[in-house]
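Researcher: Go.
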Amino acid sequence: MIVVNDIVKTYGDHKAVDHLSFTLEKGKIYGFLGPNGAGKSTTMNIMTGYIAATSGSVSIEGFDILKEAESAKKHIGYLPEIPPVYNDMTIGEYLEFAAELKKIPKKERRDQIAKVLTMTKLGDYRGRLIKNLSKGYKQRAGLAQALIGFPEVIILDEPTVGLDPMQIIEIRELIRSLRDDHIVILSSHILSEVNETCDEVMIISHGKMVERGTPAELEAKFSTGAKIKLSVLGTEGQVRGALSGIDNVKSITILDEKDSDGAVVAEVDVNGDEDVRVMISKAFANLGLPVLSMTKETKTLEDVFLEVTTVTPASDKAKKAKKDKKTKTAMKDIKIKAAEIADETVKKDSESKDSDLTEDKTNETDANETEDVKEAEVKTDSEENAEVDILKNSETEENEKEDK
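Model: Structure:
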């Protein structure tokens, strides 16, 4: 059993895996899906102990992948996206080396290697140098090393990359044969391969689990109706009229061009899960209009995948860039506003100083005028006193003359 408990992996500001949790049990092949950059390879690297999670834990058959790494890794066979092969070794030497690394007893190595070579169809290439093999056979060699020791958990990252159609079929059959005795995790971008091979599908986006279930369950979950495409020998009006009288028909689309037989091609969206093809056939039969073809289209695993992973890391990056641009613009506006406020403050301070200076000058002028007035008053008083003295002297002189 594999238990992944709330794992997180961050690289700087980027969160590659975001609080991911799931449990996997023996007897099933699990498809691990997600767009590029969703965190699939990072998750698998954490599960194998190749890198450590920032937080959270992974246990393999009860052993913590970090705290009991040696015991946990004995139960894991891993084929990464780029096979870890050594070009200067032959396939036989490479598998001997892998068996030794996995500490398989010497008495068991020969039988195990022979069995793995048979399973991967590499028996005739045992003595060939890996550097002289095609990409497809290098991929098989990487798969063979993952199977050495027949671990309980087998993790395969894009195992059919580089294989020709016949080899792909053979590898798929091999993967299916591992179901009963192993937990098989298959990561692939080929959704048809996952649909045909896997018992259960896990879809992650931005490091989070967004959907999980069998392919049939996911297709049914996202199928809110059906689309029927048909070609009929008749006019557009006859076709539209016949279809309009059928219950559960939500919309009718007549294509602009007729098919190669000159038939009108129509697409009908139907509400609910009821199959209305029998009713459509009867409606056209009553009008004497031949139906040349009729197919029912439902949601596929590919449709589900596209729907739940609409937002991609690239669009997130674009959103982040847009947000950063808005932030920069806002900061620029703030700086401009601050500069305007600063200029206004300086202007007001300058006007205030000018006002104070004008007031000081006015006060100084008023003070000078006051002093002048005081001086004038003092001067007037002196002149009056002088006149009084002159009058007194005159009176005294006149009195003296009278006495004589």
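Model: The first strand starts at residue 2 and ends at 11.
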